[in-house]
C-alpha cells in the first residue's frame, strides 16, 4: 500500500468509522459483532481505497459496511430473530438510548419517559422488514439523503422513498394517537 493510499484512507474512511459502527450495530444488534463487522469492513475499504473514484466516500464506505454486515450475518448467525430483551443489560441500555454518545435527559421523570419511549421505538423498528428497517436507519439515524440510500442499498430512489414511507406508516400504526 502506498503512502498516498494510506493518507487517502485516513482522510476518507477514518472520519466515518462512528457512522459505520452505528450501521453495523443496527444490522447485528450486538456491540461485539458490530466491531467484528467494522474490522472486516475497514480491511475491505483499505484494500479497495486505491480503486475508489472521486465521489461520495460516505455512501461508498457505508455500502461496504452494509455488505460486510450481511455477509457476516450469513456466516455467523442462523436466521433467527433477536429481541432487545435477549441482549445483555449494557447492550440493551445502549440500544434503548441510541448508543453511548447520547446524553440522558436531565430529570429522573424525563429519563424514565425517554427510556420507555426509546424501548417502544426500538422494538417497533425491529419488527420492520429488513429493507424498510435498513432504509429508515440510514435516513433517520445516519442522515443520508434518498440518493445516498439508493447508492448504499443498490435500489432506485423511488424504491427508497417507498420503503421509507411504508416504514414510517408501519411505525405510526404501532403507536396509539395519544402517545404521539
Describe this structure in words.
With 180 residues, the protein is mainly alpha-helical. The chain has a domain at 1-80: RNA polymerase sigma factor, region 2, helix turn helix motif (Rna Polymerase Sigma Factor, Chain: A), CATH 1.10.1740.10. It has nine helices and no strands. The longest helix has 20 residues, at 57-76.
Topology:
Layout: H1 3-12, H2 17-28, H3 31-48, H4 57-76, H5 89-97, H6 108-127, H7 130-141, H8 146-153, H9 157-174
Helix pairs in contact: 2-3, 2-4, 2-7, 3-4, 4-8, 7-9, 8-9
State the shape: globular
Q: What share of residues are in beta strands?
A: under 5%
Largest sheet: none
**Contiguous runs where pLDDT drops below 50 for at least 5 residues:** none
Write down the secondary-structure element order.
HHHHHHHHH
- Quote the average pLDDT: 80
Amino acid at each position: 500500500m502506498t503512502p498516498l493510499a494510506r493518507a487517502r484512507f485516513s482522510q476518507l474512511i477514518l472520519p466515518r468509522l462512528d457512522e459505520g459502527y452505528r450501521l453495523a450495530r443496527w444490522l447485528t444488534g450486538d456491540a461485539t459483532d458490530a466491531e467484528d463487522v467494522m474490522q472486516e469492513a475497514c480491511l475491505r475499504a483499505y484494500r479497495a481505497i486505491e480503486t475508489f473514484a472521486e465521489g461520495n466516500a460516505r455512501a461508498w464506505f457505508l455500502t461496504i459496511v452494509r455488505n460486510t454486515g450481511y455477509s457476516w450475518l450469513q456466516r455467523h448467525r442462523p436466521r433467527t430473530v433477536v429481541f432487545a430483551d435477549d441482549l445483555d443489560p449494557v447492550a440493551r441500555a445502549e440500544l434503548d438510548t441510541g448508543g453511548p454518545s447520547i446524553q440522558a435527559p436531565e430529570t429522573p421523570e424525563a429519563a424514565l419517559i425517554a427510556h420507555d419511549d426509546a424501548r417502544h421505538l426500538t422494538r417497533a423498528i425491529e419488527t420492520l422488514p429488513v429493507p424498510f428497517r435498513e432504509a429508515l436507519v440510514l435516513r433517520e439515524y445516519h442522515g443520508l439523503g434518498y440518493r445516498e440510500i439508493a447508492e448504499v442499498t443498490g435500489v432506485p430512489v423511488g424504491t427508497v422513498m417507498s420503503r421509507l414511507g411504508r416504514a414510517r406508516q408501519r411505525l405510526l400504526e404501532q403507536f396509539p394517537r395519544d402517545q404521539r
